């Protein structure tokens, strides 16, 4: 049934030769701060006309060499390219102007549809609240699978997550201001679902949408094995506390927002009983060598001069932050996750450090990666004292308001 519905949804699209252009792209209209989408005539389009736009956007991009497989759903650049093409065809892309949105500004509502998870999201026009909640459940479902879903999304293994998701988003009521974006997400979901209908990814299994997996945190969320697994995958509970505040353990919220803890819910690697053994504290840090792990960060909402980080078709977007860590004469660099205010690096940037060199001080230079010149975000510094070597996670004071870098050190085996 799932595949038949997907085929029918695609067959319902009008042939690619049809183009619908609504509104005048040169009329200077744009959404202001707090708007959901750029001002245009998209809300006046019929469902059939929106389908024409989605199909034409796909055809245009395929003519340029784009491939519409599961990567369109998971790759921020490819997802954004499709959404931008849709808005251009709908006449919703005023040249030279930006349309800042309330979505995700000031840690506002999280956007779960498309690339990323929760607190680290690509900026795109808002979908309906109903669809957004279903996308959140879909993210959580993938985090409950019995293995990592990177490279394995929208395949037969994930059918228990995908099929109910597709069925339920079709039942979401129309929400003014979100019709074009919601339809684009639904169109893409059907496309990638159909593309993966004949492929699988090993023996991985997934629970049904809204249900829990087989990991220690799914079976006993307050148990010791779950606590040990979460401590190992989300040191200091930084993600969980930020995404799901409150005294109760919300497994679906945690899994949807913190993909790094997936194994604890899915039941693989450290998510099996006894998968994480408590480590004995190091009584004398000078007897071992240490690795430095840049774990997580928080970025200021704007540049130091007050400008937005990056401005594109749908308004401002967050920076692409990376860290250069220096200890003595040793220097290491982290990865640069795209479009995030709260990056998750989890990168071992330096290895084999002495305790004394760490006491002398660690410097972190944080930058926004750009195609040409990188933008400096700020500097952070901390010298360790003996008790720091046994702590789960540490924070480095920074010279820029709103900038925070979390890190930790681990003894070399």
Order of helices and strands: HHHHEEHHHHHHHHEEEEEEHEEEE
Radius of gyration: 23 Å
Number of strands: 12
Helix/sheet category: alpha+beta
Helix content: 25-40%
Residue share in β-strands: 15-25%
Uncertain ranges = 1-38, 94-109
Q: What gross morphology would you assign?
A: globular
What gap, in angstroms, lies between the N and C termini?
52 Å
**Number of helical stretches of at least 4 residues:** 13
Largest sheet composition? 4 strands, antiparallel
Q: What's the rounded overall pLDDT mean? A: 82
Oligomer: single chain
Could you explain the architecture of this structure?
The protein is built from 13 helices and 12 strands. It is 30% helix and 16% strand. Residues 1-38 and 94-109 have low confidence and may be disordered. A 4-stranded antiparallel β-sheet has the order 8-3-12-11. The protein has a 4-stranded antiparallel β-sheet with strand order 7-6-9-10. A two-stranded antiparallel ribbon has the order 1-2. By secondary structure, the protein is of the alpha+beta class.
Can you describe this structure in just a few lines?
This protein has 413 residues and is an alpha+beta fold.
Question: How is the secondary structure organized here?
Answer:
Blueprint: H1 2-11, H2 47-63, H3 71-74, H4 76-89, E1 116-117, E2 120-121, H5 129-142, H6 159-169, H7 179-195, H8 216-219, H9 224-233, H10 238-243, H11 251-257, H12 262-266, E3 290-298, E4 310-312, E5 315-317, E6 321-327, E7 330-333, E8 344-353, H13 355-360, E9 362-368, E10 375-382, E11 394-396, E12 404-411
Antiparallel strand pairs: 1-2, 3-8, 3-12, 4-5, 6-7, 6-9, 9-10, 11-12
